Amino acid sequence: MKILTAAQTRAADSFTINQQGIASVDLMERAAKAFTCWFENKFRPDKAIFVFCGPGNNGGDGLAVARLLHARGYVVQVLIVGDTEKASADFRLNLKALPQEVKPVVVTEAVATPTVPADAVIVDALFGTGLNRPVTGLYAAIIANINESKACLVAIDIPSDLYTDSQTPAAGAVVKAAYTVSFELPKLAFLLPQHEELIGEWHVVPIGLDAGFIAATPTSYHLTCLNSAQQLLKPRSKFSHKGTFGHALLVCGSYGKMGAAVLAAQACLRSGVGLLTLRAPAAGYTVLQTAVPEAMTLADTNKKHLSSLPKELAPYTVIGVGPGIGQEKTTRAMVGQLLATASQPLVIDADAINLIAGSDKLKAMLPKGKVIFTPHPKEFERLAGKTANNYERLERLQEFCREFSCYLVLKGSHSAVGTPEGTIYFNSTGNAGMATGGTGDVLTGIITALVAQQYSLEAACRLGVYVHGLAGDLAKAEVGEIAMVASDLIRYLPQAFQKLLQV
Ligand SMILES: NC(=O)C1=CN([C@@H]2O[C@H](COP(=O)(O)OP(=O)(O)OC[C@H]3O[C@@H](n4cnc5c(N)ncnc54)[C@H](OP(=O)(O)O)[C@@H]3O)[C@@H](O)[C@H]2O)[C@@H](O)CC1
Ligand SMILES: Nc1ncnc2c1ncn2[C@@H]1O[C@H](COP(=O)(O)OP(=O)(O)O)[C@@H](O)[C@H]1O
Ligand SMILES: [K+]
């Protein structure tokens, strides 16, 4: 699914209006109907509804929603903030269309806003994608009042005063919605962690924007949803054999962190790899042979930390490195040896990232077009440098992937996969139960297995994060978020892959 900017969305609206030969107010009506349909499923008509409308088309949506909710038996109060004379044409049409029983109140002073009962619902239709500066004065005061109320807050399209595509200035007063119902496509702002308290739970409802126009609109930002993950997954052919699915080498573990190696290895095996060999310090030999009997283990001569690679690298389709390896000098030397000699794709995680981040020499050795990095935000900062905010971090992600011709999974709530072309694919699965030690090791195992099976590096990253998050979501249904541990994800990988195979 594409993520478009506010300007691109406006263009899609205009194109749709022309192409379908409808009036813009008809598209507004579709938006209002789609919103109302969602709303009716969420809130019963015994709730009092307060709709706050601004002067633009977002306010127009609010007026149309008020009319539709009134027709469905809700008690609706409309509050218009701003000068109705200067309001948009579709706003004015919808103002005229309000039934007599719904008497709108024009609010000219913040103190005049009614006290909204705690069990009521506020619909925020003050500003949408047309916001072009931080709100001040009356609007800021009204937003402060709305935020103070205990009522449930539902934003139309986007919470008012939140910028759609760029950092919202700190001076603004943004509506803190419990729910945001947006039209046709999600917005970039929804995917960033700093907006959690403002956007709440977000939903996207279709309004029939022209699919051809959206397909032809260029964007760097995409969201990987079930449908695209299913298209990425390759079914196994009947005559395949273990050689078809590649031989992965996972270079992992150190004394006291052998669990990371176990998790990565088990996840790799549960993600369809043909053969798996583990390279771990000697102390891990019995642990790994016992915990992961399906994998072969080649022990390092060093007891506690990795110091060398297996003699032959040629048999391996892909090499995953990092989970639990630590940052000893000998291990850094081994990472250098890997970068210098490996000709196959590399999946680089955890301390392998930290070792590379701390050494310009190692960075300069990175092979082009063959590396997937899987950092969490702190590791990303070490690798690519500090950034002032999450928008800047996304730009840095694009720059880094271009500079090093690499793929990078920036892990988080909506993990972002960066490609050498500068495209970013956000993930749509996963939950806060996954914020627990070892889940990243599981992801390394999954992505390594997918590369072994000849998925392109881009597909391995996108499908890998999707299925990892899906396993987390399935695990959540059984164990909840609080008690979830990384091995729960491995238990649910089979169901997650099965779900992707169901059409
Ligand atoms: N047909 C369509 O296109 C469809 C559009 N749809 C809906 O339209 C929404 C976009 O509507 P929009 O473009 O009219 O912008 P909107 O967010 O209502 O605000 C613009 C108004 O606010 C004003 N203003 C801005 N910033 C301000 C500030 N800080 N403080 C004070 N005023 C400020 C600005 O005034 P001005 O800059 O001229 O002073 C202007 O009057 C979109 O989110 C979706 O909900 C759907 O119905 C689907 C079909
Ligand atoms: N709130 C969250 N929602 C969705 N996924 C999450 C959340 N928190 C963490 N994750 C996922 O869990 C994994 C954590 O990885 P990482 O921080 O490397 O853990 P570790 O180093 O302990 O293995 C990542 O894939 C990340 O996307
Ligand atoms: K809004």
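^ adenosine-5'-diphosphate complex. The pocket of potassium ion (ligand 3) is lined by residues 58, 124-128, 155-160 (CB under 6 Å). The longest strand covers residues 75-81.
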